[in-house]
Amino acid sequence: MSSSFYPARRRRNAMWMGLSVAAAVVGLSWLLLILIVLFWQGASGLSLNVFTQMTPPPGSSGGLLNAIAGSLFLTVVGVAVGAPLGLLAGTYLAEYGRYSRLATVVRFINDILLSAPSIVIGLFIYEVVVVPMGHFSAIAGCLALAVLVVPVVVRTTEDMLNLVPNTLREAGAALGMPRSLVIRRIAYRAATAGLVTGVLLAIARVSGETAPLLFTALNNQFWSTDPTQPISSLPVVIFQFALSPYKEWQQLAWTGALIITLAVLALSIFARALSARGAANQ
Amino acid sequence: MAEIAIRGQTAESSVGARAARIRSFALSDTFFRRLTQSAAILVLLILGGTIVSLINGSLPAFRAFGFGFFTTQVWNPVTNKFGALAPIYGTVVTSAIAMLIAVPVGLGIAIFLTEICPRALRRPIGIAIELLAGIPSIIYGIWGLFVFAPFLQQYVQPAIIAAFGNVPVLSSLFAGPPYGIGMLTASLILSIMVLPFVTSISRDVFDTVPPMLKESAYGIGCTTWEVVRNVVIPFTRVGVIGGVMLGLGRALGETMAVTFVIGNAHKINPSLLAPGTTISATIANEFTEAVGDLYTSSLIALGLILFMITFVVLAIARLMLMRLEVKAGR
Question: What angle, rounded to 10 degrees, do the helices at A118-125 and B15-65 form?
Answer without folding.
Answer: 100
